[in-house]
Amino acid sequence: MLLRMMMVVMGRGARTTRPMEYRVAQLEALGRFLEEKKQDILEATALDMGKVRRRGAGNGGDQRLEELGPAMERWVPHVEGVLQATRLDSAFIRKEPYGVVLIMGPWCCPINLLLGPLIGAIAAGNCVVIKPSEMTENVEKLMAEALPSYLDRDCFAVVTTSTQETTRLLENKFDYIFFAGKPSVGRMVMAAAAKHLTPVTLELGGKNPCYVSDTCDVRSVARRLAWGRFFNAGQTCVAPDYVLCTLEMQEKLLPALQKVITEFYGSNPRESPDFGRIVEGKEFQRLQMLLRSRRVAIGGQMDEKDLYIAPTVLVDVQPSDPIMQEIILGPILPIVVVANVNEAIDFINSRERPLAVYVFSSDDKVWSISRVLERTSSGGFCSNDTLMHMILTSLPFGGIGSSGLGRYHGKFTFDTFTHQRGCLHRNMGLEALNTLRYPPYSQHRMGIVCAASGVKHKGSCTLL
Ligand SMILES: *[C@@H]1O[C@H](CO)[C@@H](O)[C@H](O)[C@H]1NC(C)=O
């Protein structure tokens, strides 16, 4: 009820959020929040995600704030060319905010996936209701307590809700919803949005395959792969979820991965300040179940009290195993053996479309890389590395099919939260010319209309 009242106020407030200076001022305030609360943000994420020294936890995956002011000035007043037929008129696209946007953050990138979209929503001139994930309670608390004192309270609000309350929150009529999280919750969000015909962006993550061809520099592959898989203890939506390679490559990859894990996290990763913990007990138990099924080639140690799971590699994995049925979101890397690149492609295509496809190959002719790229479909793609395509703000980022809907990052985030209103300013003069388009119609008149509007199809003429 309170929220509904607030949204009415915010909806009206939408006019105040439009001036460029207002948007820039709010973004600057957000910048101050990130700067002044850097330590608190690091501590809150560390408390939620284990004792990780998280470098650059602030605004990593999106446009840098200071670049946004000038960029916005280029993006907002965008006028398309005037139509040929109406030289006295002017046609243009007005970039308008949707109104009140709801941003629901996930627990796996609790800062980036909340503030990245927020930046775009502010830049586009919207009012925003921000809902951090209830699973990362320290980040949630910090956002609820600290962020409102930086942003304009009339137009930006942080709400904290339990799972049941989230259902009620979604009963409200928002003008746009950005959701990042689990596919099952994504379906719920989209169903709730459908009641009000509210457009959505869904970032759902995916079971991202990584094909490693027989020809590659195994040591570098192991480093890039382990970094992507074990970053944040595997809890990122874009992490390589499993490896596809030949048995021959698996035999080379295993010792290389073992070596790299030791280099990264020492002989006991549990003591490493750079290796994270599982977000909470229920997630830990889910991962524990997944781990049970197959042969552990590397790691496998667990401690429920500490929510610790060692960097783990599984072999002899079958496509029907539980670990191959869901997104892992943990520090576990299964290797599925395939005979060749064609079998790897078939394997990828027999499943839901992932958020990312990764391929490593040193083929001179980049044969396997382009073959996988051309014959598969996924939200994004990166060859010879993992995660890096997500960091480039010039690339749109988002899923396809069950890995999500819509795209964002950099200007794409601005576009996500912007309605492109197609507008035409007509001239009231030359009314005589319009006579032709009004009824009653005759064959003769229609002929002239067709000629004038330049629409000439054989034997037919459609106006509008
Ligand atoms: C992948 O890396 C290998 C080895 O450096 C290189 O030969 C190949 O061209 C790269 N592939 C692509 C698509 O850039």
TrEMBL record:
The keyword RNA-binding does not apply. SUPFAM superfamilies: ALDH-like. Pfam families: Aldedh. Residues 18-420 form the Aldehyde dehydrogenase domain. One of its GO terms (biological process) is aldehyde metabolic process. PROSITE patterns: ALDEHYDE_DEHYDR_CYS (PS00070), ALDEHYDE_DEHYDR_GLU (PS00687). The active site is at E203, C237. The keyword NAD applies. GO terms for cellular component: cytoplasm. InterPro entries: Ald_DH/histidinol_DH, Ald_DH_C, Ald_DH_CS_CYS, Ald_DH_CS_GLU, Ald_DH_N, Aldehyde_DH_dom, Aldehyde_DH_NAD(P). Belongs to the aldehyde dehydrogenase family. This is Aldehyde dehydrogenase. The gene is LOC115606964.
